[in-house]
Design goal:
Radius of gyration: 33 Å
Shape: elongated
Order of helices and strands: HEEEEEHEE
Number of helices: 2
Number of strands: 7
Largest sheet: 5 strands, antiparallel
Distance between the termini: 71 Å
Structural class: alpha+beta
Length: 180
Amino acid sequence: MLIFVALKGAISILLIALFMFNACGVFLVFKIEQTRIRKEMKLTIKQGVPQEELETIVVDATNRVQLVWTHEREFMFQGTMYDIVWKEQLSDGNMRYHCVNDTQETILFADLDDLVKRKMGNKESRSQRLKNVLDRMVTVPSFTYFAGTPRMLEDSVFGYSDATYHSPTLEKDAPPPQLG
């Protein structure tokens, strides 16, 4: 009996862990991979990047809003991640960034974006299918036998229900008798 209780507890913990991994695992794996890529890029920059591998981006008032900063030395520009090697202030007030194109992190973010879009699309289609099933269940008329006469219910399950008596012998439905 004691083994059964311990096994039951272990199975419960395992199921909760699997549920949590299903809910948060993608984010956890993403963060681990992002940290690995950032460390690798930092090491590459420290070892020295050849001048021909650097990309120069001049940021002025028109394209400044297109920069999405992830932290002080990394940003996304036009869908591509860049790591800043060095920067310089230009005389006209613009900034010139000499950067390394971080293709690994760009691919990582693109994969995450695709995954989120697929999951969101999947949920929408599931919810639409559920709505369609419920609509068919609720609006399909059903036949009931009330006081010996078949009668069609035209209102939905959640709508108004006609609870008056329908006599099988009278042509008109009779209202309840008036008390005195």
